[in-house]
Amino acid sequence: MQTQVNSARTGADGARAAAHPVLGDWRTIARARLMRVKGNLVRSRARYVREQYGLGELAELCAQLRGEARAYLEDPPLPSTWCSFGPLMDVDCAIIAGPMRGRMEHMLHFGQTVGRYDLSTIYKMLLFFASPATVLSNTNLAYSLYFRSGSLRGTRTGDEEGRVELSGAVFPRYMCAYGITGWLDAALSYGGGRATAVDHTACVHQGDAACCWDVRWR
Known about the structure:
Low-confidence stretches: 1-17
CATH superfamily: H-NOX domain
Structural class: alpha+beta
Strand content: 15-25%
CATH architecture: Alpha-Beta Complex
Oligomer: single chain
């Protein structure tokens, strides 16, 4: 299977230059921190660092973090628990700065891997008999199992292509540009898509009204 995934476009005016390089536009960060996320999304962080970088890197991260963010790695909540997104953003920033050595684009692989964690267990039952088109039409169902607010709706724009739009919620830049992009790629692949392509074509951190992704498959 050949996969092509493109991140959001770059380029900045003065206001964008003042944005956080990882989290994005300061006006959206505070809103994102108030969101609620499912415990399975929290638990995926410690698992990913442990499997990809080793126990030593995980221990270093725990030593750097404080409070609830540290607890997310040392004593993750139950998968069904609704948790605060703010501390999870702190964990992700520490992962990018630490094990990922500042390479935010590595969150693309992270999103793909997290998607495979879930799609290979409870979500696999939803998608086992799916095609990429039906995966696209059920994007919001999967989204609701991760996030309490907002919606992520997919619509077909052609026989083997579609568009996904986030509404009612905002994500930090690393997640919309790379994490969600990677997750969509994994979901389409689980639905039988080959040579999938996911392109983050609109982003609130670049001044667009909403984040959108164009997807293609064969």
